[in-house]
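Protocol step 4 of 6.
Sequence for Endonuclease/exonuclease/phosphatase domain-containing protein (Caerostris darwini) entered exactly as in the expression construct, tag removed. Do not edit the line below.
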Amino acid sequence: MAQLNNTIKNHNLDFISLNEPYLFDNSIINIPLNCTIVAAQPSPKAAIVIKSNLNSQHVFSNEELVIIMSEFNLQHHLIVSIYCPPSHNMDDNLDILKNYILKYNNLPCIILGDLNAKSRVWGRRDLDERGSKVLSFCHLMDLNIENTPDMPPTYSSSRGDSWIDLVITRNIEQNFSLTVSDEITNSDHNMLFVQYSPPGTNATANNSLNQNY
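Step 5 output, structure tokens:
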């Protein structure tokens, strides 16, 4: 997890979504002193690390889903980290997420996570059942999938490549970019970097990534 500390510093990140983070004594360790971690305890599968100087508040968290509200350039946003294990039913957490999106209907929303779902809408694998659920959920909630099929795989191992880590948005129509990093990490998942400037700003001010350890 020393790599996490270095990544935050080297890329000047405002927040990070973590999925399946490395744990020591059931806790995430080596978080920079200028950051706060939001996660359910013990043994979280999803977490958000955010700079302490940002105005943020906890909205909801369980083992696999974390939702915070954070203020960027005087505008509140929902930031979500979600992990959907391949062997678990994803419906419950999608229902929880749906309720909070509806509750904060007018807020910009950024969802980052490992959904273990496949579709040629965002990758190069045929649609599976979980991919169908994600597509239906996005259609129902008017969400935009920022990943595109021409992006590099978000997961690479001896078993092959996959595109299972997603960035999904709502009420964000401009000044948003997503990049799959080719940096070497301690994970078989690649980092996903987001750059986003809320309307009314002159430069890209907020950076984030999704990292599965």
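Step 6, annotate. The longest strand covers residues 75-83.
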